[in-house]
Design brief:
Length: about 475
């Protein structure tokens, strides 16, 4: 938990932005895995954490903007609970930890909301991403769960995105701590990688390390020799000499701030000449992002990275023509069919549920999102001092995609399809760092160390 004063200040800032009505912020509930008492590892809603900091199931918060007060709702633990869980703080004690004086049993939240509706006050809530939260909001507001997306508060959505977009010094310190966890995860995986080991063993080592130093992995680990599959969550492969292992992983620290780093390493400990060529092209794009990232438009940074990839691919004969023209035409998308960056903070894709990726109907938010330029709409994302984002270019050889483009004769003026045939078994390479935008440029998250990144660093470390 952060300092109590931080949560008080955030809630006041939110009240200043919203101006009227009540704000409903439901926390998450336990999610049963295969029966109620055997639940998935609990993860609190990130927005609830941002404003109230309590990592406990069954809580709801209401911020009364007009009365300038905050309310916390939940049930105190019974003796039966304590038998199984041990002594627990009361709801009043939990509220005091984060500067909330007014607390009440969980059922009282409905009364507060009903009264506000009866008086015609504005009711603000976010579009829920969990079905149980949608059902609860439906009971409170009378809105059908399927219609939540039509009635969520655009004002609240925008205000929270603006606040969470810019990290203060306290949050940056948390992200540095999360980096340390990510460093341990990656370096231990590198040391364990060798022919004959299973991907599952590496993934298990990574997960154990994340839980040893923090609250576990920040997303399901990608540990695969098939790096051309962008989100390959299968860990069934046996590591083979001569192949590349792509490791895209992150950890959460004890305050739920996240890291997200990718390394692509040679199973045998040594890159082949062919692998070195592609690896260095990707690394040059990573370096280009560090060179140009500064306050301003994200897409400018993205395009510089794509241009660097195109120049490298032209250099090894896989592309041809002019790099800038190839980027403008969209030819590089065959080699990197994903974005360059996403926000990082309390979510590994920070605020993703607030924006175009989290809303199936983005029309209610799109116009306002265009105005404020936060990471919830990446095409218009404006990087600000305090923005923390990923830097993750990659090159992937996806046979099905290559064959599709080739059959459609797409971008033949830029792509050397005949030479690509020898890369169908290559896989993919991605390198990822976490970047803090500063007043005059940027710096890497990881003040005192870096996960081995260059060919020489990786080979020496694995040796």
């Amino acid at each position: 938990m952060l300092r109590k004063e931080s949560y008080i200040r955030r809630r006041q800032t939110l009240r200043d932005k919203i101006k009227e009505g009540i704000i409903i912020l439901p926390g998450n509930n336990e999610a049963p895995k295969n029966y109620f008492d055997n639940a998935y590892n609990f993860r609190q809603d990130s927005t609830f954490l941002y404003f109230f900091g309590l990592n406990m199931a069954g809580l709801t918060a209401i911020i009364d903007v007009d009365a300038e007060k905050d309310m916390l709702f939940g049930n105190d633990f019974t003796v039966d609970d304590i038998i199984w869980m041990g002594p627990q703080p009361s709801l009043k004690e939990l509220g005091a930890q984060v500067g909330v004086e007014e607390t009440a049993p969980a059922c009282k939240a409905a009364e507060v909301i009903e009264e506000a509706i009866r008086k015609g006050r504005r009711i603000h809530f976010l579009n829920p991403y969990r079905s149980d939260t949608a059902l609860q909001l439906s009971r409170w507001t009378g809105i059908h769960p399927d219609m939540m997306i039509k009635h969520f508060s655009t004002d609240l959505n925008i205000a929270i995105a603006e606040m969470r977009e810019v990290k203060d010094e306290e949050e940056i310190a948390e992200l540095e701590n999360a980096f340390e966890i990510g460093y341990q995860m990656h370096t231990r995986a590198m040391k364990a990688t060798k022919p004959g080991v299973t991907e599952r063993e590496i993934a298990g080592l990574i997960k154990g390390t994340a839980e040893s130093f923090g609250d576990g992995v920040s997303f399901h680990s990608i540990v695969s020799q098939h790096g051309e599959t962008l989100h390959n969550h299968s860990h069934d492969g046996i590591l083979e000499a001569g192949r590349l292992l792509l490791i895209d992983i992150g950890g959460e620290n004890l305050n739920n701030y996240c890291s997200d780093h990718t390394r692509t390493i040679p199973v045998s400990g040594k890159f082949s000449p062919k692998q070195k060529d592609i690896y260095n092209i990707v690394l040059s794009a990573v370096d280009k992002v560090f060179e140009v990232a500064a306050p301003g438009k994200y897409m400018n940074v993205f395009n510089e990275a794509l241009k660097t990839l195109a120049e490298g691919l032209i250099g090894v004969g896989l592309m041809k023509g002019n790099a800038a023209d190839a980027v403008e035409a969209g030819a590089v998308w065959m080699f990197m069919p994903h974005g360059l960056s996403h926000g990082i903070g309390l979510d590994v894709h920070d605020c993703e549920n607030l924006g175009e990726r989290g809303l199936s109907d983005f029309s209610a938010l799109a116009a306002r999102a265009n105005e404020i330029d936060t990471c919830i709409m990446r095409n218009n994302w404006r990087l600000r001092p305090g923005t923390v984002m990923s830097n993750e270019p990659g090159i992937y050889f996806i046979p099905a995609l290559i064959e599709k483009w080739k059959s459609e004769k797409r971008h033949e003026e830029f792509i050397n399809y005949s030479k690509l045939e020898s890369y169908y078994d290559f896989g993919g390479i991605r390198i990822e760092e976490d970047v803090l935008i500063t007043e005059n440029g940027n710096r890497r998250i990881g003040l005192n160390k870096r996960i081995p990144a260059t060919i020489e660093e990786i080979e020496n470390f694995m040796a």
